[in-house]
């Protein structure tokens, strides 16, 4: 049986989720990357709730005609601003099985520059 990309990503995702979990003070910053967009959520795993979310489909970000890496930077900045207004300063980063480069890396760096600590 050939190992598919999805299978490999799910194995990596399970390894990450064994270690990374979020709570109310330091939620989990979960990234989902599709071919068209990038989505991010702040999740409190103890309560099982999504606290905040941002995506490339949001109004201000979707209107900006930029490439996908710059779009990810805008999403990272947006989630950091929303978190700051909600009183969240530190998060635990969950790359969700994706490699830490390209869009995932630019999102994380933009969130750090905007004030999130992880």
CATH architecture: 2-Layer Sandwich
Strand order of the largest sheet: 3-2-1-4
| Series of secondary-structure elements, N-terminal to C-terminal | HEEEHHEH
CATH topology: Nucleotidyltransferase, domain 5
Under CATH at level 1, the class stands as Alpha Beta
**What is the terminal separation in angstroms?**
38 Å
Described by strand count, sense and barrel closure, the largest sheet is: 4 strands, mixed
Question: What's the gyration radius in Å?
Answer: 14 Å
> Can you tell me the number of structural domains?
1
Overall pLDDT, averaged?
A: 94
Helix tally equals: 4
The share of residues in helices is 40-55%
In terms of DSSP E residues, the strand content is: 15-25%
Spans with pLDDT under 50 lasting ≥5 residues?
Answer: none
Structural class per helix/strand content? alpha+beta
Notes on the structure:
The protein is α+β, with helices and mostly antiparallel strands. It has one domain (5-113): Nucleotidyltransferase, domain 5. 42% of the residues lie in helices and 19% in strands. It has a four-stranded mixed sheet with strand order 3-2-1-4. A hairpin with a 4-residue loop joins β2 (38-44) and β3 (49-55). α3 (68-85) packs parallel to α4. The longest helix has 18 residues, at 68-85. The mean pLDDT is 94.
């Amino acid at each position: 049986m050939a190992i598919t990309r999805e299978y490999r990503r799910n194995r990596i995702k399970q390894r990450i989720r064994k270690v990374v979990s979020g709570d109310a003070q330091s939620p989990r910053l979960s990234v989902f990357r599709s071919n068209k967009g990038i989505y991010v959520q702040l999740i409190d795993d103890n309560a099982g709730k999504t606290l905040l979310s941002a995506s490339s489909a949001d109004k201000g970000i979707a209107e900006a005609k930029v490439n996908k890496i710059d779009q990810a930077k805008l999403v990272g900045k947006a989630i950091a601003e929303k978190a700051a207004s909600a009183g969240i300063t530190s998060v635990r980063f969950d790359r969700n099985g994706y490699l830490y480069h390209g869009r995932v890396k630019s999102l994380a760096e933009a969130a750090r520059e905007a004030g999130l600590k992880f």
